[in-house]
Amino acid sequence: MTAIAQGPRLQLPASTTMAEAAAVAAKLPAWAAQGESELLIDASALKVFDSATLSLLLQATRLAQSLGRPLKIEGLPEQLAQLARLYGVAELLSLPPAVASEASKATEDPAASALAT
User: Fold this and answer.
1) CA angle 78, 7, 92 (to 5 degrees)
2) Nearest alpha carbon to residue 38 among 23, 58, 60, 56
3) 79 has which bridge partners?
4) How many whole angstroms separate alpha carbon 32 and alpha carbon 39?
5) Could you read off the pLDDT tens digit of each residue along the chain, which spans 117 residues?
6) In order of start, what are the domains of the chain with their CATH numbers?
7) φ and ψ at 39, to 5 degrees?
8) 69 CB contacts (<8 Å, ≥6 apart)?
9) Are 14 and 1 in contact (CB under 8 A)?
10) pTM for the full model?
11) Which of these, 11, 44, 53, 63, has the minimum number of CB atoms within 10 Å of its CB?
12) Phi and psi at residue 40, in whole multiples of 5°?
């Protein structure tokens, strides 16, 4: 399956892995050339992804920056956001910092928390 470009919106396909990322990346310049407003990547359909997906998003970010246009990524699966944080690229993709769940806060080691402050 290939990405669907709709104006400055790029809909990522359900599977965007190493096998599909190059085909999607080839569509980036034409997608970015549309309009003059904010570029939008809709990742809400993503079900299967890997580090190549992050590479694709970083490539789109660099392209948007080179054109002086803002880029917004919508619908990014939490697991992919976690992968971006693990690799240290979440900030480059303008992703919000991780928010600890209430369950993880409840099981947090108080001694470890004391050391962090």
Assistant:
1) 40
2) 60
3) none
4) 7
5) 455 544 589 999 999 999 999 999 999 999 999 888 899 999 999 999 999 999 999 999 999 999 999 999 999 999 999 999 999 999 999 887 775 443 344 445 545 444 444
6) 4-116 (3.30.750.24)
7) -90, 140
8) 32, 36, 37, 38, 39
9) yes
10) 0.77
11) 44
12) -130, 130
